[in-house]
Specification:
Chain lengths: ~280, ~450
Amino acid sequence: MMPAAPANFSKPLITIQPGKRWPTLQWRELWAYRELIYFLTWRDVKVRYKQTLLGGAWAILQPLLTMIIFTLLFGRLAGFESHTGGVPYPVFAFAGLLPWTFFSNAITTSGNSLINSVNLITKVYFPRMIIPGAAVTAGLVDFAIGFVLLIALMFYYQMTPGWSLLLLPFLVLLTTLLAVAVGMWLSALNVKYRDVRFAIPFVVQIWMFLSPIIYPTTLIPQKLRVAFLLNPMTGIVDGYRAALFGKPINWIELAISTVITSFAFVYASFFFRRMERGFADII
Amino acid sequence: MTAIIQVTKLSKEYRIGRREAAYGTLRESLVRALRNPLQTLGGRAAANEKLWALKDVSVNVEPGEVVGVIGRNGAGKSTFLKILSRITEPTSGRIDLYGRVGSLLEVGTGFHPELTGRENIYLSGALLGMKRAEIQRKFDEIVEFAELEKFLDTTVKYYSSGMYMRLAFAVAAHLEPEILLVDEVLAVGDAAFQKKCLGKMRDVANHGRTVLFVSHNMTAVNQLCSRCLLIADGRLVMNGKTADVVAAYLQAGSGGGAESVWQDLRRAPGNENIKLHAVRVKSHGVIKSEVDIDKEVEVEVEFWNRRPGARNLCVTIYLLDSNGTVVLSTGNTPAANALPEEWFDKPHPEGLFRAICTLPANFLNEGLYYITVYVVTLGPLAVEVEAPHVLSFRVFDTGVLREAGGGGNWPGVVRVRLPWTTELVAPQAIPSAPEQQIAVELKD
């Protein structure tokens, strides 16, 4: 074992004081703990499908089965398949379901991540944002697996994406940011009010019906369109479809989503940092 | 040399009493806001009781020091470590740390049962603040320390609790921050492994690291720490040489002797199920801190049961001598009770219970003894109350064993009158027979 370096700092390395009213966002510290983000993500990925028969196949089965049900129910019965702008309904639904499944799983696990980590929060220090954050990034692996099936579907229906596909990384980033924002907000609230745990499934369900997952945005009456666009998932899901199917991108829609997502992220970060102080005491 | 840890007037206040205020549901908050809008607007802190878990603690620690932190349960030791390790924030005051901090508040921080030993070493190491490269470098050392080479790729959920502890401590023991905060982690594991851990801790100390060590194990504190802090009711009441502080703690910490009563339930040892009310030492029905060596000693434990219908409650007493060695442990289970046990597996109604254990006369040696009390629920084991060193009493030699030919001190932890028989076997002088003859006799 190496002898510890003598403490020859002229300035203290760490100063502990009661928190200020307006906390900082501690980006530098998050950067210092980047390896921990990786390890917690890796843990969640490793553990998720442990002791399951089908393992990682669930990452494909989840959106696939939902897609089949939706195709039968909404595509055929409700007749949405004639409004997709020429895109076969299964691909249309799947392209929406893929980011949606990622997003909804991410906010569900992320929203419950803090209260499921009591043993960490009360026993060891690290920037708490890492917990809901890693819960989201762990979902990216499933997201990537799901894309493989999407490519297969598009190949089957002989669809070729265009240059707009280059927008995809940005869309993934935007979805992740939004999921982290919502996840941080829900998880912090969950520490104080355990109602959140029960409310999350309903929020997810309602949010899905308010987003253009099973139907195209064009079906929304013009009067309601503005309100509809305030949902950042609208621009994101439409963006995915446009990018994948080579359709023109609605830049205004996407810009609205980006602005709202950024606001949500900043707000949630500050909210989280303010709530964070009490975590160890009230969890 | 400048201090590596500088704590200035550190205080931490908790709101307690109305637990739901901190930990409630949204509905309760809304209902409260509706019922009492003025109070809510004016800050509802007024409705809650407050408790200073820590009050105006100031202390400096020099680099390379190993400092023990002792005190009774609920005194504020753990709060102190939690603030130092940044798990919770202070209400006021300031701490300056001139080095990296590693804290070990539990064994197996971040262990995941579904991961293998190898994977858990990385995960736990990262959580405790190690870099990946650092873990890789020390990996073999950690595995060797844990003695688990063969089970590295076994899922941890199949480990025995001993194996789990060994692996967990091995990871923690290889942390190399300048400041190490340790909370009672040596209380687990078997004796041999505990010894190994103590050795490792001493190593750490010898390498110039600064260690803050919270423990109820006075033997360990004595062995490891040069200096000790005594915390009582959130205040730093003593700061000095370990031997002096431990002695003061054991004297004062045991409530000055033969009786400890907790009128304030908030301060009483225990949890939401059981709260300790009183522990007493009596001799012939009278509370006494000095008992005669030839008299029975009654240890009386009173506790509140707050969970109607609780079963399998067991009051356990550890009797310790002045070195902290456990002389005996006993409990009121049907198997351990010499009398028929009346309550153990029956549903206990809510209320105050009293359990009395009688230590026989002419059993303990003279000297100072301490009592540690546990109340546990058995099968599966849940520790409801843990109250180390709640009281002390002194056993006095009345001279009974000296009356006819007894010496002063009888060495030993216990001094029991045992049945002896002595008889005359051969009433004659030692026969001076030649050795050869004996050999012949044996041949026959």
